[in-house]
TrEMBL record, chains A, B:
It comes from the Bacteria. It comes from Falsiruegeria mediterranea M17. InterPro entries: ADH-like_C, ADH_N_2, ER, GroES-like_sf, MDR_fam, NAD(P)-bd_dom_sf. SUPFAM superfamilies: GroES-like, NAD(P)-binding Rossmann-fold domains. One of its GO terms (molecular function) is oxidoreductase activity, acting on the CH-CH group of donors, NAD or NADP as acceptor. It is an enzyme of class 1 (oxidoreductase). The lineage of its organism: Bacteria, Pseudomonadati, Pseudomonadota, Alphaproteobacteria, Rhodobacterales. This is NADPH-dependent curcumin reductase.
Length: 346, 346
């Protein structure tokens, strides 16, 4: 094949927030699948906060993207050539195809998708890694009980909206935090949060905490941690005894010098945090969903019917064109998206 | 009764390390037990780091000792008068008798002890709250697996020595940290730790971490947190993925301005700690043993025979006289004790 493909490569490592020149949009020859491999034409790709971490070379759960390497990420696409008995041209699949129009992947690293059952974009959000992350973290590490209170930030994102809706269905009071009045309206009107606070309306953690306390009159039993920073500082002192804090990410700190920057509130210094964990008997658990794929069928079995019935809703924000992926990504890290951020590649 | 008793009261709240004038030694009339109550003559009382926390009025799991109130604490003593069918004069019992020669307590708040089975002092240490704390935290929250590596500080204290011995019997490599060469020798020779580091020999967390890394060639799977400070800073970067950190206390921070002081290593600032928890999928759990008394019979059933057989050993450091309790307490907070600190009251 001599047809060209396109990809977005990591041109340089960002310091702080990524900028356009950290990325390069390049053409390349479409690769040929080897034995057991499949060639896919990517239709949609996912943009997720964790990708910011892959741009650094600090120690993390995954190896960094090398300079010049294709940016990593999940996508859904159509099989156009296959050297595996498990896939035929015309099949749709989810895989880690990267920021690219085409990708070759081992068949055993891909998951087949039925485009007639659900829009294929759902494999990137509500029924994909983000939705699964929210469901697993809440269910397994949050251990929700009816009558309790949950707080989650990025409440309209694909993780936060799953967390909030699953918690609401389990009988919890759900309080979201989001950036801007529009997102807060989306959180309450579409995702059914009992309340949502606009973190941009508060100058600091202390001010946010005061209103959060009003919104959580019985304290906070589960804080699903996916942003860090000001929200974490605001929530910690409100945690009830035996509270649970699943941690799946800290987007607000991803840009802050490799997460090394100090919290602004001295009471939330390291000893302050540890003391809070101790005296409230908190359970704080970091996790990454890729260690728990064995639970995916259970997630799908529980959640897919609730999406079909409308009990669980989802919102997608779709940017057009692979060449616009860096801009969409930078915008998302700044909260510019409304719902799950996806890029339409094809 | 007109006979006099003696007690140690909280005269004033300490700022930083407690000093002699924070305590007052006072006489009082021996109280008379009401319906369902028992009068006890205290033989031995326990000194524990948590008592430092009760001297502050900061929010904690327990109400502070009021100014002028008797210092709280557990003790073992002999019943000398009883208005309960459950206790008779001559019985021995454990209870929260405070820093006092005599105490009246409701019978249902006391636990009978058989002085013929085990020395009564063991009810304060190896078979009491500290030993139970170590066993529960390690077993339930540490989830030890043979071949893993455990680190615990205050390794010769009643909590740390239980943690280390139970972990060793479960097939773990056990590395202790203690203050001084004598304690390190006690840790390896008496309590069977594979290695013990003297934290006083290191100027900072970084230096301690370097040797700890040598002592833990396969990393650290369980860090039983009972001291905080320099040791915590040293250990955190050595934690293996899926590591567990049970937290039962942070003695090194108790004196540091209500635990609000910052860690010295900026990498261990709040975002740094949270990032470590996230990227290593750590499980961090604060606990207080009084929430888990339902497990006490199981603890006793497992550990008492191992003490009788010599598989688990204990060391006690007994000060003489209630009037010397403040001095023994201040010394213990500075690491001056060797083994479980007890005061012989009678």
């Amino acid at each position: 094949m001599t047809e060209q493909m396109y990809r977005v490569a990591l041109a340089s490592r960002p310091t702080g927030a990524p900028e356009a020149d950290n990325f390069s949009y390049e053409s390349a020859a479409i690769p040929t699948p080897g034995e057991g491999e499949v060639l896919v034409r990517v239709h949609y790709m996912s943009l997720d906060p964790y990708m910011r971490g892959r741009m650094d070379d600090a120690k993390s759960y995954a190896a960094p993207v090398p300079i010049g390497g294709t940016m990593e990420g999940g996508g859904v696409g159509e099989v156009i050539a296959s050297n595996s008995p498990h896939f035929a041209p015309g099949d749709f699949a989810f895989g880690m195809f990267g920021w690219a129009t085409h990708a070759v992947q081992p068949a055993n690293m891909m998951r087949k998708i039925d485009p007639n059952q659900m829009p294929i974009t759902t494999a990137l959000g509500v029924l994909g890694m983000p939705g699964f992350t929210g469901w697993y973290g809440l269910t397994e590490l949050g251990r929700p009980k009816a009558g309790e209170t949950l707080v989650v930030a990025a409440a309209t994102g694909p993780v936060g909206s799953m967390v909030g809706q699953v918690a609401r269905l389990a009988g919890l009071r759900t309080v979201g935090i989001a950036g801007g009045a529009d997102k807060c309206k989306l959180a309450t009107d579409t995702f059914g949060f009992d309340a949502c606070l606009d973190h941009r309306a508060y100058p600091d953690a202390k001010a946010l905490r005061a209103d959060l306390k009003q919104a959580c009159p019985d304290g906070v039993d589960i804080y699903f941690e996916n942003v860090g920073g000001k929200v974490l500082e605001a929530v910690m002192p409100l945690m009830n005894p035996h509270g649970r804090i699943p941690i799946c990410g800290m987007i607000s700190w991803y840009n802050a010098g490799g997460l090394g920057a100090g919290a602004s509130d001295p009471g939330l210094s390291a000893p302050g945090l540890w003391r809070t964990i101790l005296v409230n008997f908190l359970s704080v658990n970091g996790f990454i969903i890729s260690n728990h794929f064995d639970r995916y069928p259970e997630f799908l079995g529980q959640i897919a019917p609730k999406i079909a019935s409308g009990e669980i809703r989802y919102v997608e924000d779709i940017a057009e064109g692979l060449e616009n992926a860096p801009q969409a990504f930078m915008s998302m890290l700044g909260g510019g998206n409304m719902g799950k951020q996806i890029v339409k590649v094809l």
